[in-house]
Structure formats: structure tokens, C-alpha cells
Amino acid sequence: MAKVVVGLSGGVDSSVAAYLLKEQGYDVYGLFMINWTNSSVTIAGSCTWEEDIIVARLVARKLDIPLKIVDSSQKYYQKVVEYMFKEYERGRTPNPDVLCNREIKFDVFEEYANELGADFIATGHYARVDEVFVDGRRIKRLLAAKDTSKDQSYFLCQLSQRQLDKVIFPLGGITKPQVREIASSVGLASAHKKDSQGICFVGKVDLPVFLQQKLAPKKGKIVELPARARYFQERHKIEGQSLKQICEPYDFRKVRGWIVGEHNGAHYYTIGQRRGLGVGGKQKPLFVLGVDTVNNIVYVGQGHEHPGLLRKGLFIRSDDLHWVREDMAMRPGETMNVQARIRYRQPLQKATLYMQEEGMYIIFDQWQRAITPGQFAVWYKDGELLGSGVIHA
Q1: pTM metric for this prediction
Q2: Do the beta carbons of residue 388 and residue 106 sit within 8 Å?
Q3: How far apart are CA 379 and CA 362, in angstroms?
Q4: Is beta strand 120-122 parallel, antiparallel or unpaired with respect to 67-71?
Q5: Can you list the domains of the chain with their CATH numbers?
Q6: How far is the C-alpha of 194 from the C-alpha of 46, rounded, in Å?
Q7: Which residues pair with 313 in a beta bridge?
Q8: Which residues are catalytic?
Q9: pLDDT for 99-112, tens place per residue?
Q10: DSSP line for 346-374
Q11: Which of 192, 199, 195 is CA-nearest to residue 59?
Q12: Does the pLDDT value for residue 220 go beyond 70?
């Protein structure tokens, strides 16, 4: 009987994943990882790790499976939180959920699972894995979940062939309502537990408060930029521009604006952000267009469709590229038509990949809003996630 170690978090998804695996005849073992213990930065009312452990124990007891609890908080801090601080300090916006999956759930977790003698590991992610044979080689494919509204393949975009070869996603072929129904019918303690929100393993936080653990407040100017600025008009005339020119981020210093407020630190803000600016009295809502952490300036503009928020392309450095389908990795000079997204839950967008020596340029058919350095761009073909990369610019 094959042994599967399930990441049992105390949530309904991982609980049902464990139940389904046991029903399928696996020898199921639960593993709960304590990754964050500092509740001072979480918003009141969000579930704590102590509560999660209680639910996980109840679920394990109901399913009659062993549960091992390990403290991996130090590794989580080193691998995920420290990276977050460094990225925000540079004026970039990291994605902790992608990092958490790559560094913790499918790395540190696998180490613990191997110690338990696991043949496979499993999680409650909404995604699917299958395999194909290419030139006699067995290749794992990472596919979007059946429930497209819950599909989490985006968060798994940094997984390797080795990791996919050992993982099982029991929920990939069912919907969230079905998961809730199964949990209720079995009588699992997590059946009506709310889904977790916020930073992976940390919970829902007030981001500036969270970042103040390492990044001190620093007063600076909020500068509003006009939508009709000549600079934006010129940049939006992309005909005849090179790939590099199309994908270059805006230089907001070239636009004459005016001071409309004060902030407590440019590193606390991210492109596209609307709340937390503290500036009112405008005809349209203000959105963050960009942040300058060197000069501590936050640039803003009025309206969801401000031209300073819209771009046609982005750039990923070669060192930051990752191919789930290693056999389909592009060489310099090659192009590929794909569907891509630059954030979780964004509808897939038609785009073209252009591989160059310095990295990959992604040019979209339609203008994209709030392309954000530090986030992950992900590309698909026919529902299969082929690769991903950290947006450099």
C-alpha cells in the first residue's frame, strides 16, 4: 500500500484531500507545519495557528490517520519572509504564496515527508497533474483545475518535474461546493471553516504593520500625475518600438505632477493600489502608478484606466525564468503564442513570448493594467501551465 503524506492545515480543502486519498486505498499520514507564530501582525478575527492545529487534530482523529506536527517557522522566515522584506524595500511586490509553495510546501514539506517514508505527498490545491511521453521520456503536466473559479495552478508555477512526479492533487477534478458537501457528509470539523486569506501561513495582515517589523516608516511625498501627459501619449504609440522599449517601465520623473499628500514609506505601496493613500476630494479614485523607494515618492493618478497603469508588455530576466515543461523551454530568437496572466484570478490573456539572450519579453494582445515587478507572470497552452517567471520590469 503506497504511503501518502498530506499537508493537513486544518482547512476544509486539505481535510477532504486526506479523506479522498484514504477512500482510494492509500496509507494516509497527516503532517501539520507550524510556519508562523507571531499573531501581533495579523488582523483580529483571523484564524490562528493554534486554532488550525485543533481542527487538524480533530480531522485526523475522525479519519483515523496519524498526525505529525513540526515547527518549520524558522525556515519559513528565512525562505519566504526575508525575501518579502527585501523585495518591498526595493519597491517591488513579491508573491508569498508562490514562494511558499516552492520553498515550503513542496520543499521543506517534502523533506519531512521523506523522513516519514512517503511514496507520495499531497495537498489540497485545486490543480491537476497528468503525464505524457515525449521522445520516450515521461513528462509531467501541470493542468488547471476543473473548478476554474478556484484553480490554483498559478501558485504552483515554480514547481519542478521532480516535485510534480511525487505529488497528488485529490481536489483537481472536483469543485469547491463538492468539497464542502463531502466534508459535511463525513462530519469533518473543518466542513464550515472559512477559507484562509492573506499571506500564506501568516494570515490576513495590515501590510504596513507587517512590513514595519523590518522596514521603518519614512515620510515622503505623494505626487499626482495627469492622465493627458504628453509622455504617456508618446509611450502608448508602440508602432516601430523595439521589444525592450515596449516593455520598459514608465519613468514617472519625466512627467510634471503635483504634490497631493504625504505617505509613511514608499516601500509600503504597490502598483494598482487604491486604499491606504489618505487623499480625498478627487473626481475619480486615486491609484498608485509607481513607487520610487530611492527618493521615497509614491506616484498616483486618477481613474482605473489611467494611462500610467496600462502597459503592453513586460520583461523577465533569463535567471528568473522557470519552465515546468523543460522540454518546451525556448531558445533565443524563438517565439511562442500563449495565454498568460500576471496575477492570480486574472482571466487568461492572449500574448506572444519572445525569447532573447537577456531574457523573455511578453507582449500582450490587449493593454494590461498594473504590471507589477516582483510578481509572477505565468503562461499556458490548452489549460497546461508551461512556465513562469518573476516580472523584472
Answers
A1: 0.92
A2: no
A3: 10
A4: unpaired
A5: 3-205 (3.40.50.620), 211-309 (2.30.30.280), 311-390 (2.40.30.10)
A6: 10
A7: 363
A8: 100, 200
A9: 888 888 888 889 99
A10: PPPEEEEEEEETTEEEEEEEEEEE---TT
A11: 192
A12: yes
